[in-house]
Design a protein that fits this description.
Three copies of one chain form a homotrimer. Chain A is built from six helices and 15 strands. By secondary structure, the first copy, chain A, is of the alpha+beta class. In chain A, the strands form two sheets. In chain A, strands 8, 9, 10, 11, 12, 13, 14 and 15 form an eight-stranded antiparallel β-sheet that branches. In chain A, strands 2-1-3-5-4-6-7 form a seven-stranded mixed β-sheet, with helices on both faces. The termini of chain A are far apart.
């Protein structure tokens, strides 16, 4: 139980992430800290939530997932530990854990209040360093949950765009764009399968039509668009050896429709 | 004594940082190398010095802080090891260690000359790989200081902008801007407290006036400016959920004044 | 044999690299994963090959070099393990290993086919996660080569620009530009030495002439150009405390000539 994953919006041009790692190693020299991503855009709660959902389960059982995207730092938003069957999650209660916890249900939620485990003096602007990192470090050393605060029942939800259905159309949207310009939608593979049920269909985006699901990027020619179920498990629109984001001038929120023929 | 922190301007688009880590692990497989930051702007001695000052003390006692921002590589500038009460610092003698060493005084300074601990052939352009990384690795294995070279008495200073005082005004400036656009000044919390002594005051920047110190970012409305003592321990001008750097068109050197009313 | 180096084009703004590390640690908790570089430009096989060539030998013997720049993911391109005297290399057979393997010859090549060591279900878009990371992890645990698939005899070559010679001229070109704007050419130090044989020579680039090889950057004045044998072991054109790329408006492919006087 010595792996701590790190997901923040602190970026890599300053010292914030390094300081958190120093704090962790000072408390638990045996901890192995692994970056999931520290380049989430500032205050990007949704992006962090989406990346966490698509990452957490690949880590060893017992991993402490430390997530600090925390625009409400210094306000009354709670700091929490969430235990699930296989993992611990530590972060602010602002929805950033919500998508992961829809996949793997919480078995216990703790409101972190015991300042015995904080770095003092606690700043009002960098709880990543002063609260979240030390708590994650003590957790990774095996300190039991009850030490950190009282049990609570609920966490803040995150708004995730709903799918719209009618008989012939499933309407979703782009929710995430990766470094390659791939457009990841909110249409997950199960929803898609259930909707098309073996029928012929087309996929529409930005006035263009794609008439099948490809298996890999290179089923399309170089610079040609395609749709597939990507490694996130969602319908994804891509361009082979190119950027679908540029090709379709798409952004988050761009509509993607599946239409039964 | 197996943690080595790394602070460089080598960036992450090339292999420089990875190669230094390879060199370290080849010498000390038990070393745990932690990045403080490798995205210091090229030749940014001041920025690195400022980040080091605000990071070093969060690491475990015995950590070797390896700092390579080295525009003078291949010249007569010295390579040094500095021992303090709790840490080792390894880097070029160009001022980059100076701000940290004003906080924690050197107990011994060694001019690194013994090429027994260098990677051969020693290049004239990448002492990070050929001198600093191997020396840090041997240090982290417990090799004693006297092996690396002779004791010296002084290090190069770094110019840090002075505060200007008159009876009613304390004049400082922006010395660092972080990824969020927060403007960190050279006015540290002790100097500020001593100056205002409980009097009413205002803070002036770029023609605007702030009339109090906030505790956290969210005391201001979204996109509104505020001043606070930030996690660096200095007076900081920020914009809640926004960039003070953009808001005030500020850059390094922009004046920040505290005026007693 | 627990070090795994990582060289990819996955970038740091998404979760791809973090997920690969999670997968590795789940299989081999004792693995130490070290990034060589994850910011290779998307599909940049040549750049990755060049960085690998200049990095691999600095790592401890037994290191598994995991290289995933894989525009052909999901096609018939092979996944391979290459054993050399001191290292293992794991990656797609698309030329990305070629430059390193010209320096240290393969002693065995395995075509990875045994899906017992894959993460299931295997996606068609992220073999870094589903095939390469788990195979590297099992290798780093000491699993022997024959488990992963059958021996094969050849790998794909990478096109590396040839040098052109006549009696008085050696014509090369820029093949890589680093973060500092240094222009690294395809003229390696041995080829250069053999060509100039102690004669006087000049170096020409973009209409400018440099009349000697410097030892370090600071032999030239600030913002002045120079040529030297850089830390890659190749002829390099640089600007002291500046960017040669900007100074010469140079890019990959820009001609660099050495002329005997």
């Amino acid at each position: 139980m010595n792996t701590i994953s790190l997901l923040t919006d602190f970026g890599l041009v300053d010292h914030f992430v390094g300081v958190m790692k120093g704090v962790i190693l000072k408390i638990n020299p045996a901890a192995s800290v692994v970056d999931i991503c520290n380049e989430v855009k500032p205050q990007g709660i949704f992006d962090a939530a989406f990346l966490l959902r698509n990452s957490y389960a690949y880590f060893p059982n017992g991993t402490v997932h430390l997530v600090v995207v925390d625009p409400g730092v210094g306000t009354e938003r709670k700091a929490v530990i969430v235990k699930t069957k296989n993992y611990f999650f530590v972060g602010p209660d602002n929805g950033v854990l919500d998508l992961a916890l829809k996949e793997e249900k919480p078995t216990k939620i703790i409101h972190i209040t015991n300042d015995k485990y904080f770095l003092k003096p606690v700043s009002d602007t960098f709880h990543g360093r002063d609260i979240f990192a030390p708590v994650a470090a003590y957790l990774s050393k095996g300190k039991s949950l009850s030490n950190f605060g009282k049990k609570i029942g609920f966490l803040k939800n995150l708004e995730f765009p709903d799918l719209c259905y009618d008989e012939k159309k499933l309407k979703g949207e782009v929710v995430y764009i990766d470094r390659f310009g791939n457009l990841i939608t909110n249409i997950d593979s199960r929803a898609l399968e259930k909707f098309i049920k073996g029928n012929k269909f087309i996929i529409k985006i930005s006035g263009c039509t794609l008439d099948k699901l490809s298996r890999g990027y290179s089923e399309a020619g170089t610079d040609a668009p395609l749709a597939l179920i990507g490694s996130f498990g969602f319908l994804e629109v891509s361009v082979n050896i190119g950027s679908a984001s540029a090709y379709f001038s798409a952004r988050k929120g761009t509509a993607v429709e599946v239409e039964i023929l």
